From TrEMBL:
Residues 23-65 form the CobQ/CobB/MinD/ParA nucleotide binding domain. The lineage of its organism: Bacteria, Pseudomonadati, Pseudomonadota, Alphaproteobacteria, Hyphomicrobiales. It comes from the Bacteria. PANTHER family: COBQ_COBB_MIND_PARA NUCLEOTIDE BINDING DOMAIN-CONTAINING PROTEIN, P-LOOP CONTAINING NUCLEOSIDE TRIPHOSPHATE HYDROLASE. InterPro entries: CobQ/CobB/MinD/ParA_Nub-bd_dom, DNA_Partitioning_ATPase, P-loop_NTPase. Coiled coil: none annotated. This is Chromosome partitioning protein. Residues 1-20 are annotated as: Disordered.
Length: 232
């Protein structure tokens, strides 16, 4: 990460800006859709007026790879190396000074570096597929969040859902909703998500009028309402 960019150091430090809001997309399991949702939510948030920086914290670098194929700079994207994760608070300060209002963190599907990442998050979105294995695999992340005192600041989103009616999906949704930990709407399995990411776009850029785009915009609106209002 080169948060200073190539500009010259100002002689007088600029006034400290409000800290950006931080959305972490995290769950200790691969393949649930963290990168897919992080990318499209970052784009949808930018379209809704946020100045977004997305940070790829996953050594696999999928989000950074997506960024490399993007031809627009509507979302700033950077990669953090594992040893930089401890510097997140300072990095957030720098991003604030640069005018970022929302930081989206895409994380690895493991516990490595997760606690310091979650600690900085205003909200943690945990994508899971509507399957018992995924929901069980989310438990350690849930326990870590509760241990960090982040109750009320996280939710699971059902991703890659089969077309409705799907009794299994509805049953999981009802259980999670009853526990107050369901982000809505759920996101259906749609090839638009795969095709958008393949060409460096968010799904709202790739197919703006599609159901996939509608779901992502609605999910961003849901998350936006759960996060603190930016102050200062
Ligand atoms: N809603 C969706 N519809 C269709 N395919 C999806 C959806 N979400 C994720 N995928 C696909 O699932 C796979 C894993 O997604 P990815 O975002 O890489 O997961 P993670 O970052 O959690 O490992 C990818 O092939 C991706 O294209
Ligand atoms: Mg990923």
């Amino acid at each position: 990460m080169d948060p200073q960019g190539s500009g010259h150091e100002p002689e007088v430090a600029p006034p400290r800006s409000a800290r950006p809001r931080v959305l972490a997309v995290a769950v200790q399991k691969g393949g649930t859709g963290k990168t897919t949702l992080a990318a499209s939510l970052a784009v949808a948030a930018a379209e809704a007026g946020e100045r977004v920086t997305a940070l790829d914290l996953d050594p696999q670098g999928s989000l950074a790879g997506w960024a490399a194929t993007r031809e627009t700079d509507t979302v700033a994207i950077d990669r953090l190396q594992p040893w930089e994760i401890g510097q997140l608070p300072e990095i957030l300060d720098i991003l604030a000074q640069q005018g970022t209002t929302l930081v989206v963190l895409d994380t690895a599907g493991s516990s490595a570096g997760l606690a310091p990442t979650l600690k900085e998050a205003d909200f943690v979105l945990m994508p899971v597929r509507p399957s018992r294995l995924d929901i069980v695999a989310a438990r350690p992340t849930l326990q870590a969040l509760i241990g960090l005192g982040l109750r009320g600041r996280f939710a699971l989103v059902l991703n890659q859902c089969p077309p409705l009616p799907s009794p299994r999906t509805s049953a999981y949704a009802a259980q999670l909703r009853a526990l107050g930990v369901l982000a809505e709407p759920g996101i259906n399995h749609r090839v638009d998500h795969q095709d958008a990411l393949a060409v460096g776009l968010g799904v709202t850029e790739y197919a703006p009028a599609s159901p996939a785009a509608e779901e992502i915009r609605a999910l961003w609106a849901w998350i936006d309402a759960k996060m603190p209002v930016t102050t200062g």
